[in-house]
Request: fold
Amino acid sequence: MSSFRALLAVVIVLGALGALATAAGATSGPSPKFCSSYVETTSQLDQLHPTGGKYDLGALKSFGKSLSNLTKSTSGKLKSDVKTMAGFVNALASQGSSLAAEKYLATNTSAVNKYEKATADYVSAGAACASTTTTTTATGSTNFNSCSVVTQDQAASALGQSVTPGVLGNATVEGGRACVFYGPSAPTPTVPDVAQPDSVRVVVVKGSDAMTWYNDYKSKVNAQSIAGYGDQAFYDGAASLSVLKGDSYLRIAVSPAGAPPSLADEKQLATAILPKL
Reply:
């Protein structure tokens, strides 16, 4: 269904525009706990786009789990909206095949409409998160410069094309700050606080809280253990590789334009970064 696909394609851009507006002048917003979960959940949306006409049911399942977890940090109307989104995505993921998912969309117009309305409210609430995450970064103890461990050439090699210099964002989803490199097809405006396609995101958390943040994210996704990286590592089933090494938590997301995330390229970049941690 074209409306559903279009919604998936624009939600991240809407979130980025909202974040810009908030950073420009908003003084209040939702709780830091919601904002952390919101940015993390939203980062999965661009992985749901049908590739070659096919839905990634694994990514849908992971997204549904993240939405279900998000209900724990919401209340009132927003909680109801997130529950609506989670129920719809979980139903779509349970169809068993991409073709069955397409048929489900075509025969459940009412459910699609409810999902779209709930998502619009969700994005509106999440747009206020930029100021909240900025405050968290300013007062946190893990304000490590993630751009100090990755070069522009390394990011370009992972994405398979030229990238901009790294931009340090204020997002604190992992308890740290994101260093983001953008490819030539990245949507505008580019906002490092919000996950976007055609980009490479690297986040490093150093210190005693590294394991706490690592385990926190692991509990929110369908984690798949990955051997041979750091002390322990996992793939989140949708978008990124997380590695724990000593008192450092490294998270990498390589998101090519118009293609699924590349775990192989995330592993390549992790191999280059880990000796620096």
